[in-house]
Design brief:
two-stranded antiparallel sheet; tt1808, chain A; alpha+beta
């Protein structure tokens, strides 16, 4: 292993709070989150926010849908998922506990990060549900933690129809993949 790694800066939340622009902090490493999302990415995010918000309201679940909010995982790890659902009211500041669901929408610049690093991080942190949305392939990869603490799931396409998610330990919501992916 190279000795150069020990000379690499290790940033913390205090450093992060001083930065301008779109950044995340992964185990002390600054990660640029540029360029900004494309129109298809933004459209899919809008559909997911509407679908999840309406489904949560339909079952009177005490959960909040949050867009582009920092999740402070630890003093040296901060991520900003495309969408986060927390149980209860929205936090006064940033999210500081494990969300009920995280959604990442793939783009050319974030695809590997979302599918590899963030999937491993969210699984390690015990995020019950992780949805990876792909606007290019028009798919949703819906992952849920198994009893062994590993993600299992299925990839849904526009022809998949309705699927269900359980949020906040007791709220079961129904979503229409065809509507989200159209």
């Amino acid at each position: 292993m190279s000795s150069a790694r020990r000379y690499q800066p290790h940033y913390t939340i205090d450093d992060y709070r001083q930065w301008e622009g779109r950044w995340e902090l992964w185990a002390g490493v600054a990660v640029a989150m540029s360029p900004s999302p494309t129109g298809r990415h933004a459209e899919m995010l809008g559909r997911l926010v509407m679908a999840l918000g309406n489904a949560i309201e339909a079952v009177s679940c005490a959960a909040s849908v949050l867009v582009e909010i920092d999740w402070i995982v630890s003093s040296d790890t901060i991520v900003r998922p495309d969408m986060t659902i927390v149980c209860g009211p929205p936090p006064a500041g940033h999210v500081e506990h494990v969300p009920a669901l995280v959604v990442e929408i793939l783009s050319d610049s974030t695809r590997e990060r979302d599918v590899v690093f963030k999937r491993a991080l969210y699984e390690e942190q015990g995020v019950p549900s992780y949805v990876i949305a792909d606007p290019d392939e028009r798919t949703l990869h819906v992952l849920s933690l198994s009893s062994s603490g590993r993600y299992v799931g299925e990839k849904l396409g526009a022809a998949s129809g309705k699927f269900r998610l359980v949020l906040c330990s007791r709220c079961e919501i129904a979503l229409d993949a065809a509507w989200i992916l159209r």
